[in-house]
Amino acid sequence: MVALSPTALEAFFAEDDNSAVVMLNLIRFEPDGGRERYRQYLDLAKPCLARFGAKILFSGDGLPLLTAGQAEQWDAVTVVQYPHRSSFRDMVGDPQYQIAFKVGEAAIADIVLQPLKHFGGLT
């Protein structure tokens, strides 16, 4: 189920908007055709991402975990870079993206969206 937290979004958008942000998507697919629907979502979403200056840095299947403990196994990971936080906000509100989002929503049983920012001084 895809459910964005209004409180978390408000705090995210209130932060400095002068640098790129990377969004880590940890995805668990619906068992009945979720992976295929997610690929359809990506095909529909790519033109929207491009319009807002975003790009997919990586998308791929999760492999078996190498760590012990309470870590969860995810079916796939997608990493997207946005030029600014406002680019993400504007894209999510875009009517064309909303069409793609419905396909993605039907594909996903569970998701974690983790925004990331660059460590200063590292490449």
Automatic annotation (TrEMBL):
Domain DUF1330, chain residue ranges per copy: 35-107
Organism classification: Bacteria, Pseudomonadati, Pseudomonadota, Alphaproteobacteria, Hyphomicrobiales
Secretion signal, residue range per the UniProt entry: none
Superkingdom of origin: Bacteria
Protein known as: DUF1330 domain-containing protein
Pfam families: DUF1330 (PF07045)
